[in-house]
Design goal:
187 residues, mainly beta, 2 helices, 8 strands, 29% strand, globular
């Protein structure tokens, strides 16, 4: 009979979903798609939840259209499809942290590293709230595994659906017309 209630290698299951979130410690992933970029703000709903509102880079929010009226509530975002090694699944990663964006852009412009699609990335998160720090490190290049390639080829993710607030993982992928994004984002 064991002296422990739980096995030594037991970990409490984390809620996994379709979106990668920065966890404390190491976050290893592989970019699988080009990013969509744009602007994001949040709308508080009557039930207490919050809804993201996004628009493409070339169609910025006017302050009058930001639900809070505060231009500081608008963030620049990248959204990209990734393979999350810890979760062992395809997810969407949204990057709003300027330091991470700058580090990744520097890697992609580097003659030594090049395209972010060719190697894994390790982002280490340390600290909490205003004391949070992120460290970005490339992992030496290696080919993407055939298993990941297959899962990605079979996925049906439309990142542009984020602009209209629809589900990018829905089975029906359509080309999102950015002209269909409502002018009044508070609805």
């Amino acid at each position: 009979m064991s002296d422990n209630l739980l096995p030594d290698n037991y970990e409490v299951p984390q809620k996994t979903g379709n979106y990668m979130r920065w966890q404390d410690g190491e976050n290893k992933f592989r970019f699988l798609s080009s990013a969509i970029i744009g602007w994001e703000t949040w709308q508080d709903l009557p039930d207490g939840s919050r809804k993201p509102l996004r628009t493409p880079m070339d169609k910025p929010f006017s302050v009058e259209k930001v639900p809070s009226g505060d231009p500081m509530d608008i963030k620049h975002f990248w959204a990209v499809i990734v393979w999350n090694y810890k979760e062992e699944k395809i997810q969407i990663l949204e990057i709003t942290q300027k330091g991470i964006q700058k580090s990744l852009r520097a890697l992609e412009r580097s003659k030594d590293w090049g395209s972010l699609l060719d190697y894994d990335i390790l982002v280490t998160k340390e600290g909490q709230k205003l004391e949070t720090e992120y460290h970005v490190n490339p992992v030496p290049p290696k080919p993407l595994s055939r298993e990941i390639e297959k899962v990605y080829a079979e996925s049906n993710i439309d990142l542009k659906a984020l602009y209209t607030g629809t589900d990018p993982f829905s089975a029906k992928t359509t080309e999102v017309d950015v002209n269909d994004i409502p002018d009044d984002l508070s609805k």
